[in-house]
């Protein structure tokens, strides 16, 4: 792959979290993706950080693709009003669809589902199925503890060098969008 990143899967919480900085950065990322003509691929919901990033992208004229599951829809979690949401059978299919539609991945604060999505992409990196860049948005130092866990796994001999994952920590939306626009982290 070479050139500019054209589409990004954003994984994040369907809650807002306790820190208002999380929603602020989610909104800013949605705005910046739209303004820079980078398609947002997301979980399809209209709640929490997920809804915030999608709403901001839509409000700024961005292209947004939502992928949800039949189970989530059956729980009556509202789909985002401004887009057509593709509904797939289960989480594995949802993750694969989002993976296929995206040139890169942005991980915002979130819970166990967000962690699952991120580690799924990292596992694809580890076994050589992907070289697409992953960006952890470290808003309010949210992901620092995960970095410590990775260091521990490496020191105990269970993880190769974390640099092998094309994983990049960014601390603000402006730095993130610069990396996405420049495509510096794309691997041929």
Q: What is the third-level CATH name, the topology? A: Rossmann fold
Q: What number of domains?
A: 1
What radius of gyration results from the CA coordinates? 16 Å
Structural class: alpha/beta
The SSE string, one letter per element, is EHEHEHEHEHEHEH
Task: Look at the structure and give the mean pLDDT.
Answer: 90
Q: What is the top-level CATH class?
A: Alpha Beta
The CATH architecture designation is 3-Layer(aba) Sandwich
**How many DSSP-defined strands?**
7
Strands of the widest sheet, in order across it, are 4-3-2-1-5-6-7
Query: Count of DSSP helices?
Result: 7
Ends distance: 4 Å
In terms of per-residue confidence, which ranges show pLDDT below 50 for 5 or more consecutive residues?
A: none
* Main sheet summary: 7 strands, parallel
Shape summary: globular
Strand content: 15-25%
Helix content: 40-55%
Task: List strands and helices in order, with pairings.
Elements: E1 7-11, H1 20-35, E2 39-42, H2 48-59, E3 64-69, H3 70-74, E4 85-88, H4 91-101, E5 104-107, H5 112-126, E6 134-137, H6 144-155, E7 167-170, H7 173-182
Parallel strand pairs: 1-2, 1-5, 2-3, 3-4, 5-6, 6-7
Q: What does it look like?
A:
It is a single chain. This protein has 188 residues and is of the alpha/beta class. It has one domain (7-180): 3-Layer(aba) Sandwich (Rossmann fold), CATH 3.40.50.450. Helix content is 43%, strand content 16%. The chain has seven helices and seven strands; from the N terminus they run βαβαβαβαβαβαβα. It has helices spanning 20-35, 48-59, 70-74, 91-101, 112-126, 144-155, 173-182, and strands spanning 7-11, 39-42, 64-69, 85-88, 104-107, 134-137, 167-170. The protein has a seven-stranded parallel sheet with strand order 4-3-2-1-5-6-7, with helices on both faces. α6 links the parallel β6 and β7 (167-170). α1 (20-35) runs parallel beside α2 (48-59) and α1 packs parallel to α7. It is globular.
